[in-house]
Amino acid sequence: VKLARRRKDLHYGDRVFALVLRFASISVAGVLLLIGLFLFKAALPSIHKFGWSFFVTSVWDPVHEEFGALPVIFGTVASSVLAILLSAPLSIGVALFLTEIAPGRMANVIGFLIEMLAAIPSVVYGLWGIFVLAPWLRTHVEPLLGRTLGFLPLFQGPPYGVGMLAAGIILAIMVTPTISSFCREVFRAIPREQREAALALGATRWEMMRLSVLRSSRPGIFGAVILGLGRALGETMAVTMVIGNRAGISASLFAPAQTMASTIANEYVEATSDMHLAALMEIGIALFAVTFIINSIARLFVWRVGSETSR
Amino acid sequence: MRTDVLPSDYIRRSQGRRRTINLGMCILIGLAAAVALVPLFSVFIYVFSQGASSVNLAFFTELPKPVGEIGGGMANALVGTLILISIASLIGIPWGIMTGTWLSEYGRGRFGGMIRFAIDLLASTPSIILGLFVYALVVMPMKRFSALAGGFALAVLMVPTIARSTEELLKLVPVHIREAGLALGLPRWKVIFSIVLRGSRGAIATGVVLALARAAGETAPLLFTSFNNQFWNRGLGQPIASMSVQIYTYAISPYDDWHRQAWAGALVLVLLVLAVNIVTRILLSPATRSAK
Asked: What is the pTM of this model?
C-alpha cells in the first residue's frame, strides 16, 4: 500500500512538471497570437477610418490625420528586393565555397567570420552606413553609376549617398549570413555519393556543383532566399539610419525613401495624436502579417528539404 | 556535332572549354566569399580605429553632457543596458529553458511540431514588431515608458533562441542515460531535472550567453518601451538609457562629439559580441567537448 501511494505521488510530480513545461511552451506560441491581437486592437481607429485605402493611397499627413501607406510599402518591397538581388548570388557562392571548395579548416574560419556578420548589432551597421558607406556611395559609386548607366531611370538624380541604394546594400550585407548558412545546410544534406557519381563520370568541379549540388537543392535554396527576404523586410535600425527617410515613390535608386519599419522607428516620438499612433500600429500589423506569411512559406520549404534528406 | 572535325578533336576542344568554365566559376565562387567578408572587415576597422580614439575613462564614468558641451560619457547607458539585460534574463532564461526542455522531452508528434513552428516564427518576427507589441501591452496601460517594458521586450526576443538551443543540446543526451535514471526508480521530472538538464548545463549556459549578447545590441524593441534617459535611472517603472539606443541617438545627431561617442559605444558592443562568440565557439567546439 505504501509503495502504491508513493508511486502515485511520483506520478503527481511528473504531471505537475509536464504541465508547467507545457504551459511555458504554449505561452511562447501564444505570444504570436497576442502580438496579432494587441496590434490589431491598437490599430483599430485607423482601420475603421481608412479601410483598405490605407494601403493604396500615398498621403501621409499627421497634421490633418490623413494616412496612406503606399510609398512606405513601396520602399519596403523595393529595398528588400534590391537586397535579395545583391545578396542571393553572393550567398549561394559563399555556401558553395564553404561546402565544395574550401578545405575543412579554412571553411571553419570563414564560416565563423560569416556568422560574425550576423552577430554585429544592427545599430552598428547603421553607424557604419552613415559615416562610411553613404559618403563612399556619394563620392564614388553613385557618380560613376550616373555617368555609365545614367540612361536608365534607376541611376538618375543627384547622388545623396543616403537613400534606396545604401539601404539595399546594407540589407544585403545583413541577410547574407542568413541565406548562406541555410544554403550551407541544404548543400551539406546532399549525399556524398551523388557528388562522387558526377566526378566519376568525368565532370569538372563546377559541373559537379551544378549537376549534383545545385540542381537537387533548388527548393532549399528558394526557402533560404525567402527567409532572407523575411529578415530584410523587417530589419529596422540600419535601414532607418541610411535610407534618408523621405516618403515618396521614385524610380531612382539614389533617391531617399522610407520603409514600414523605418517609419515606425522614426515617428513613434512625434506620434501625439491617437490617429497617428493607430496608423503606425496598422503599418506594424501589416508588416507582422507579411513577415509571418513569408517566414511560414520559407520554413515549410527548408523543412521539407530537411525531412526528405533525413529519410 | 560538326562533321569536319574528328571526334577526338571535338572532345579535346570541348574539354578545354569546360576546364575554362570550371576555372572561371571556381574563381567567381571564391570571389563571392571574399566580397562577403569585405563589409565585415570594413566595419571592424572603422569601429576599432574610430572607437579606440574615442574611448576614455569619462566614457565609462560620466553622464552625457548637454548639447554643445564637449565630453561626458555613457555611464548611465552602460548601467541601463545591464539592468535591461538582467530583467530580460530573469524572465527570459527560465521561460526559454522550460520551453526548450518541453520541446526535447515531451514535444513529439504533431502538437510539438506546431509549437516548434510557432517558436521559429516568433524568432523571425522583426524585433520592431516586438517593440510595438510591448508598447501596446505594457506602455499604453501604464502610460509611460519603463525599464520593465524594455526588459520584457528583450525577454520575448530571446526566448525562442534559448528554447531552440536548449532543445538541440538536450537532444544530444543519449536515451540510455534517461533510461538508467528511470530504471533506478526516479520520477521522470527528477531524471530530466537532475540528470538531463544538469549534465548539459554548461552547453545550455553558452547558448543563453549568446542570446544575451544578441539582446544587448538590440535597439528597435527598446525605442518605444524603455525609451531613453540622459540621467541615472530612478526605478524600474521609469524610462532608462541603453547603449544601443544611445548610439542611435548620437549617430543621427549633427554633433561631432556625439558621433565620437557613438563610435566608442559601438566599439564596446562589438567587443562584447566578438568576445562572447569566440569564447562560446571554443567551448562548444567538438575538440574541447571530447577532451572533457
From this structure: 0.90
